[in-house]
Specification:
about 375 residues, mainly alpha, Dna Ligase, domain 1, two-stranded antiparallel ribbon, 6 strands, about 55% helix, elongated, MLTG-like, cell wall biogenesis/degradation, cell membrane, transmembrane helix, lyase
Length: about 375
């Protein structure tokens, strides 16, 4: 009896094992089917998404309406970014997608878009639009242009504005120095126009913030705000490219433009701006006054061929013969070359430099004795 009972137990166990095995196999088949279905759905969804994206991008690359040749005016202000231009084109119905336009420009290395007012139609391709913006085919000519050369000061810019508008130089300067004007501009450009402008020792708050370039205007006697804003916008566009370098140098925008303005006013055509920058850095490191003549002339409010010894006694926070460190603010509007030099001084031990009389060749020296010898040789003797 025991043998028969044992035999039955073994058969039951074997049967249970077979049933469990079959159940597991069935579950495994179901799981594999589920995984396969999920994988297939995922692949289908990814394929549909990719194909949809490709179709969408291809569509966005085509003209909005190939049959519509009716043009609209597109205004591109000075300093406009590709994103801003793309958004304007989208809003005017000239392109389908601003982001696609942005990446089309980037991937095709299209650059050098010119400011102005353009005639554009929905039938234009992205290639035609980009070419139009590059070549500057304007819909209308500028009524007047204002050129701001590198090294120009605010009063000189005011004189240029005066020549092309009904505003007087006095009205322009009063507007530019007006606290309410400064406040409004600070709200628009908070990262550029910081509270450093409010320093009571600053002569003109916007000095150094109107970027050197040629600006076009398309209406007679526009508001002063419309004349000045593109110049500030251009400064913002240029300066923000160097945000990381400013952080590395622990230098804010105001100090950068101040140092760049000194380099700009000291540099001749033959000068190495990076070497001039190194002299200023070396002097600051050694706690020496910068002793740069253009700051004295700025304090005096004069343009002179020569700085006299009596001029060096002017009592002003801008007089770098008397006050150590940088002046309260820029003394002119610096170009990008001087901005780069202010952030990237050359490696040198020079503490002095001078421009040779008659040629503009710049000579550098490490000691006052060497400097005085160079001064006698290249300035005093030649001038006499």
């Amino acid at each position: 009896m025991r043998k028969e009972g044992t035999k039955l137990d073994k058969e039951k166990k074997a049967e249970l094992m077979r049933e469990n095995l079959l159940e597991r196999k069935s579950e495994a088949i179901i799981i594999r089917k589920i995984v396969a279905i999920i994988a297939l759905i995922t692949v289908i969804l990814m394929t549909v998404t990719i194909l949809g994206g490709i179709i969408y991008i291809k569509s966005a690359l085509k003209p909005v309406d190939p049959e519509n040749n009716k043009t609209v005016k597109i205004e591109v202000p000075i300093g406009s970014s590709t994103s801003t231009i793309g958004q304007t084109l989208k809003e005017k119905g000239i392109i389908k997608n601003a982001t696609v336009f942005k990446y089309y420009v980037k991937l095709n290395n299209v650059a050098g878009f010119q400011a102005g007012v353009y005639d554009m139609a929905p039938s234009m391709t992205l290639s035609e639009i980009a070419q139009t913006l590059q070549t500057g085919t304007l819909a209308r000519e500028a009524i007047f242009k204002i050129a701001v050369p590198e090294g120009y000061q605010l009063e000189q810019i005011a004189e240029s504005i005066e020549k092309h508008t009904d505003y007087t130089k006095k009205e322009i300067m009063e507007k530019l120095d007006d606290q309410e004007t400064i406040k409004q501009l600070q709200e628009k450009y908070p990262d550029l126009l910081t509270d450093s402008l409010l320093n009571k020792n600053i002569k003109h708050p916007l000095e150094g913030y109107l970027f050197p370039a040629t600006y076009s205007y398309y209406e007679e006697n526009p508001p002063l705000e419309s004349i000045i804003d593109p110049m500030i916008q251009k400064t913002y566009e240029v300066v923000t490219k160097y945000d990381e370098q400013m952080k590395e140098k622990k230098m804010d925008v105001h100090k950068l433009l101040t140092l760049a303005s000194l380099i700009e006013k000291e540099a001749t055509e033959k000068a190495d701006r990076h070497l001039i920058s190194s002299v200023f850095y070396n002097r600051i490191q050694k706690d020496m006054p910068l002793q740069t003549d253009p700051t004295v002339l700025y304090a005096l409010g004069e343009h002179k061929e020569r700085t006299m010894y009596k001029d060096l006694e002017v009592d002003s926070p801008y007089n770098t013969y008397k006050v150590k460190g940088l002046p309260p603010g820029p003394i002119a509007n610096a170009g990008e070359a001087s901005i780069k030099a202010a952030l990237n001084p050359a490696e040198s031990q020079y503490l002095y430099f001078l421009a040779e009389y008659g040629t503009g060749e710049v000579h550098y020296s490490k000691t006052l004795e060497e400097h005085n010898k160079l001064k006698a040789k290249y300035i005093t003797e030649k001038r006499d």
